[in-house]
Design brief:
The protein is mainly α and about 130 residues long. It has one domain. α2 runs parallel beside α4 and α3 packs antiparallel against α4. It is elongated, with a radius of gyration of 18 Å.
């Protein structure tokens, strides 16, 4: 159990946070925050990657890579959904498809991955050092 929670509880929290994220990304950002939109994208994807890796991947590189790709695809889907929603509702509930948002998402994912690789490497090296030589 990660975070001391069962898999079922972690999946429930994930689905709840996923729904909140979708709604949040589909609404237009309040004017107060529009000047830091890219920074918010970077921070969100860094945080999402951190949460998902801590909750589901641990030190597993394959799971980490899956989470990275899944979050990037989620960001692409959200951008397309934002553009489509403006046509679907015939009202501008959000901005437009923004490739710079995808780039900011990628920055957050890469930044977390770099940190994750350092932490996992240090953990593995310290574990090797603490094991007695055979």
């Amino acid at each position: 159990m990660r975070f001391g929670l069962s898999l079922q509880t972690r999946v429930f929290v994930l689905l709840l946070l996923f729904a909140v994220a979708v709604v949040g990304f589909m609404l237009k950002l309040p004017a107060t925050f529009r000047h830091i939109d890219k920074e918010l994208h970077t921070a969100f994807y860094f945080g999402a990657a951190a949460f998902l890796n801590l909750a589901f991947a641990g030190k597993n590189l394959l799971r980490h890579a899956f989470i990275f790709v899944a979050l990037y695809l989620f960001g692409m889907a959200i951008e397309w959904a934002q553009a489509y929603s403006n046509r679907f509702f015939r009202s501008r509930i959000h901005g437009r498809f923004d490739p710079e948002d995808l780039q900011a998402n990628l920055y957050g994912l890469v930044a977390f991955s770099a940190l994750w690789l350092v932490v996992v490497t240090v953990m593995l090296l310290s574990k090797k050092r603490s094991q007695p030589a055979a």
